[in-house]
Amino acid sequence: MTLSITLHLLASHPRASTFHPRLLPVLGEEGVSRLHRQLVARLLNLPPLGFSERIVWVDDELDEVLTALAEDNDWMVVGQPVGDLGERMRRIAALGLSESDAVVLIGQHCPMLDADYLTAACEALDHHHAVLGPTEDGRYVLLGLRQLDPRLFESMPWDSGHLLELTCERLQELDWQHGLLPALWVLDDPGHLPRLGRLGIKLGIA
Length: 206
Prior knowledge:
Elements: E1 5-11, H1 24-44, E2 53-58, H2 64-72, E3 76-79, H3 85-99, E4 102-106, H4 115-125, E5 130-134, E6 140-145, H5 163-173, E7 178-180, H6 193-196
Parallel strand pairs: 1-2, 1-4, 2-3, 5-7
Antiparallel strand pairs: 4-6, 5-6
InterPro entries: Nucleotide-diphossugar_trans, Trfase_1_rSAM/seldom-assoc
Organism: Metapseudomonas furukawaii
Protein name: Glycosyltransferase
């Protein structure tokens, strides 16, 4: 049986003062905002890949260019639910699972997350209850689920290098089979900037 899977992107308005604060001294406010837009646009331009629905969940309004890009690529743009990050993710996953067999949630700060990676996540959900896309610093950038339990989102250290480890422990406690995709890097440090050139992403240096 082919699973129906919905894709959910958690995105934010490109405010340099709120996101990528460690990049500000290198890129400046305009450079950080431009980079932020590029990262979101890369995800919005990904092919549909057979997802039954693709939704951008925004914590504020996207700018006009990104909103138009999302609509042109058949993404639905809606506001994020209330609550901390864990509660928002739980609510989004619950809504997705009420309308499809599985959900894939992704963040916006990983330049390496591409169509092949999403395809691998969907394939893993064929024979796992959950799949995680780890980051090099011990967190995760992708979460795929075929069922839901609030313990995956409660009292989690979202900005800690222990997030992935703790999530895997809770999946084991639930006796859920879970898969791990290859680890990716997340852009949140000036030391990561040289890697962007290999992806064709140009920077506006301050």
